[in-house]
Amino acid sequence: MSISxxxxxxxxxxxxALQNITFEVQEGELxxxxxxxxxxxxxxxxxxxxxxxxxxGSASVANYDIVKQVKEIRNSVGYMPGKFSLYxxxxxxxxxxxxxxxxxxxxxxxxxxxxxxxxxxxxFKNRRAGALSGGMKQKLALCCALIHKPKVLxxxxxxxxxxxxxxxxxxxxxxxxxxxxxxxxxSTPYMDEASLCDRIALIQxxxxxxxxxxxxxxxxxxxxxxxxxSNQMHQLILDLKHFSSQYSVFAFGEFIHYIDKNDTFDTxxxxxxxxxxxxxxxxIQKTTATxxxxxxxx
Amino acid sequence: xxxxxxxxxxxENLTKQFGDFTAVKGISFDxxxxxxxxxxxxxxxxxxxxxxxxxxxxxxxxxxxxxAGFDVQNQSEEVKRNIGYMSQKFSMxxxxxxxxxxxxxxxxxxxxxKQIKIKTNQLIEELQLGNIAKTKVGDLPLGWKQKLAFSVxxxHEPKIVxxxxxxxxxxxxxxxxxxxxxxxEAHKGTTxxxxxxxxxxxxxxxxxxxxxxxxxxxxxxxxxxKEQFQVNSMNEVxxxxxxxxx
Lengths: 298, 246
Description:
heterodimer, A: alpha/beta, Rossmann fold, Alpha-Beta Plaits, six-stranded mixed β-sheet, four-stranded antiparallel β-sheet, 10 helices, elongated, B: alpha/beta, 10 strands, globular
């Protein structure tokens, strides 16, 4: 087992950041922690990278205990915190050299691991980190986290605030790292990224709500979701919320996802109701759940 | 929308150079009164630079922009008084309470004491902040901060509000509640100018522009953009546009 967490709890003054968390990540697995701001994701990362001590419970990373074997863990893991850990006044090359030196290695020694990421930023290697775009900083931070060839990689919200193109590229990089045998624990608030992980844990308010493969989680969702659209989407949200048997109403891109309380829900009744409210071009269709639908119903 | 659309933002050949780097390359577009206008682009495409010019805090190198009836080059103070702005980094003071923040910003926007009092009560009631009116903003969950920051940006009843990635990092339910606030505000006639990296949110906009390398590469309704690029989602439109550049 690459990461094993047993009944971990962590409290800050009067905030219970993590409550009795238990999960395991296998070697070479790409495991996602999916949850919003304040869910406890960062606390969990800090515990597993030995930067914080738990109040209760135990955990091991790469078979080292997070309390007793701090040095061993620090040598075996790479950590990319949510806020960039780079030295703003050092250039790309200087940052990378610095991190390599700290871990007693050189850029050359593990170059094969970072090569396909580093070549994308190499043309700017003499530019200071502070002057890089968000996407480039992200790539450099990943290189720095990889330079000592860690067994386990911790990535705390690496794609927050990053545009869709760079996000896609980043996940392609993670896939390649995984193929090289590195275990990856990654957190994200973007639900669409969940489907790119081998397994995910949905986390909210310090508790894990569900752990499984993205596919299984979606398939286990037993409510029927309808995509609804009309010519006036804002009014449609308001009117759907006032429909007597509504269970939930959420905007979902160009449609609204509607769930009814009754199993015997008849779309014709809803259509009539919306027509009476003055909607035109009404469409109501069954659709399949996404991770985001499941998450919102937990 | 009405057939004759009043323009509230008019941008013509707007350009910004930093040394020998041109961040915004002569962009031109209009925003209609009361519309939700999505301003999209990859990191580094020039969105923030363009937005800074539109809100009157950065001078264009060349070209023109008229925002809420004022020229951004010569009347930047009037522009600032007639717009609201909320950034991803929250322009709220963490050490002040909810009430104090509202009072403070009301003062900045030139509201009278009486108006501030009315507005404060109104806001606290509308957002159901009664229980936390005396809480420091720094202790609020991110979702609450965002809703509050949005409302504060609207205190002086601006004609346009600029939202720079307003929903980053929050949970999916809060994100949707935030958009319901945006819809309601647009419904009152306020123009919304919004940037986001969530492509499902792009679908909620009346029209969307996509900036690539300092240029507006596409501008239309989400529906027409999807037809034009023959794809099913704005995410695919975005990926197609940005990929083509490489």
